[in-house]
């Protein structure tokens, strides 16, 4: 377990139920002290489950799995599921799969459902929100996809396009109420949840 520290504001222990460097960086923007713990859950989708429902279920499972090891504390679980024309856009895991994924998504619109759960381990109270982000891919030439994947590793990114990096050049538009949702943790929704638990932000 690691500890991220910043200000000395006193409140219940905060735990991020994720080892994602992207979620760690995002949560760090709030300048709150938090610990990191890896959730041990099965992330396989259920038969017939929508992307929204899957993201919500996994965010809850992650928060509760980690929260079960604490007598008190606020646990943050989050998950993101992307869909395009009824197909899931998972993390490609290899350059070859990223090429296939970007070629298939070229010219199409995808929805990235990002869920966040805040679980109070002491009281059992749970808050969950899902923030959708609509992403429109440009029509991409094979040479563009090849050049992109040479310059930016995107095999750990759902949809194979890192919007916070060079991946933004592959897109026509992004529509969302919270720009941090696409990166992996919707901070506007999370801040509202934390305030409900009497955490002062800022």
Structure characterization notes:
With 202 residues, the chain is of the alpha+beta class. It has one domain: Maf protein. Helices cover 28% and strands 25% of the residues. Strands 1, 2, 3, 4, 5, 6, 7 and 8 form an eight-stranded mixed sheet that branches. The chain starts with a strand and ends in a 6-residue tail after the last helix.
DSSP helix fraction = 25-40%
Mean pLDDT: 93
> What is the name of the CATH topology?
Maf protein
- What's the CATH architecture? Alpha-Beta Complex
Q: Which helices and strands appear, and what pairs or packs with what?
A:
Blueprint: E1 2-4, E2 14-16, H1 21-28, E3 34-36, H2 51-67, E4 74-84, E5 87-88, H3 95-105, E6 109-120, E7 126-137, H4 142-151, E8 171-175, H5 187-196
Parallel strand pairs: 2-3, 2-4
Antiparallel strand pairs: 1-3, 4-5, 4-6, 6-7, 7-8
Quick take:
With 202 residues, the protein is of the alpha+beta class.
List keywords for this structure.
alpha+beta; Maf protein
């Amino acid at each position: 377990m690691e500890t991220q520290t910043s200000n000395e504001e006193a409140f219940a222990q905060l735990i991020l139920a994720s080892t994602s460097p992207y979620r760690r960086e995002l949560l760090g923007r709030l300048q709150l002290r938090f610990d990191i713990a890896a959730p041990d859950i099965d992330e396989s989708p259920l038969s017939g489950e929508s992307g929204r429902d899957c993201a919500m279920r996994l965010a809850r499972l992650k928060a509760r799995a980690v929260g079960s090891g604490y007598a008190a504390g606020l646990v943050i679980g989050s998950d993101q599921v992307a869909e395009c024309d009824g197909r899931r856009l998972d993390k490609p895991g290899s350059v070859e799969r990223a090429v296939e994924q970007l070629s298939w998504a070229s010219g199409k619109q995808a929805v990235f459902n990002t869920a966040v759960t805040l679980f109070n381990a002491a009281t059992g109270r749970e808050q969950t929100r899902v923030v959708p982000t609509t992403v429109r891919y440009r029509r991409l030439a094979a040479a563009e996809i090849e050049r992109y994947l040479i310059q930016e590793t995107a095999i750990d990114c759902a949809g194979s396009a890192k919007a916070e990096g060079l991946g933004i050049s592959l897109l026509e538009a992004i529509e969302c109420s919270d720009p941090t949702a696409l990166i992996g943790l919707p901070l506007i929704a999370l801040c509202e949840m934390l305030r409900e638990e009497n955490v002062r932000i800022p």
